[in-house]
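Example 3.2
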Amino acid sequence: MSISWNSIEGAIELGLLYALMALGVYITFRILDFPDLTVDGSFTTGGAIAAVMISNEYSPWLACLAAMAGGMIAGALTGLLHTKGKINGLLSGILMMIALYSINMRILGAPNKSIMGVETPFSGEHVMILIIIVVLVFKIMLDLFMKTDIGLALRATGDNKRMIRSFGANTDVTTIIGVSLSNGLVALSGAFIAQQSGFADITMGIGMIVIGLASVIIGEAILGARTVFWATLAAVVGSIIYRIVVALALQVEWFDTSDLKLITAVIVIIALVFPTMQRSMKQRSLARKRTEELMRSGGQQAKGGM
């Protein structure tokens, strides 16, 4: 197995493009504790809006803003279904994901939309610096947002809804804001990917929630999540590492590109099981040391009594 620097560089670039999607999944998965499957649909929504607008000669940056707005609307609708419609969170996301399939098809007008040959900021050869700046700006903005009153209420909603309600906060509003913001970031990531790949496809969002979860979990396993700063940085780093691991796995001869979903599932399983096993081993080691200390102290007391 030989790995070229170009393939690693490509994996890092792709990881950065998907980093905003990972930040969006972090908001719902870690902060709100909300199982949001809207992601699979809103990612495509972002790509579809961007591709259609760019093909109609709108500015790529304007297309990105419109894509983000589309994702935020989809997320807000999921939040409304859950908070006002009293529909289970998981089911709300599934329903919106199904609805978005038809909406995305309407936006695209066909199963896919090509923007090959159209110059965009994310379709050139040297997009690394640009995407690093964009990701850092959104990461810092998210960090600052989480320190505002609304951001603190958002974090408290995920930790303990009853407590935050007792302080007079409206948890329905914070939930809707959180899910909306999450899907806005996911759709923006979809817009970047559509520009980088030169097309938007109706199936481009399938499995995005798993990739987002993998990025968040891998990043937290490496960097931890002591503060919001570290947690958001972990999501970005996790997205990059996930892409590098996938690139390395696909270099193995008996893996095919069609095995990508299997590789993703295996990475998520390892990322979930390994920290649990590590904690369990530490707890067993501490219990064993404690038992040995108690036995030694018990023996010394017995000798003293004699």
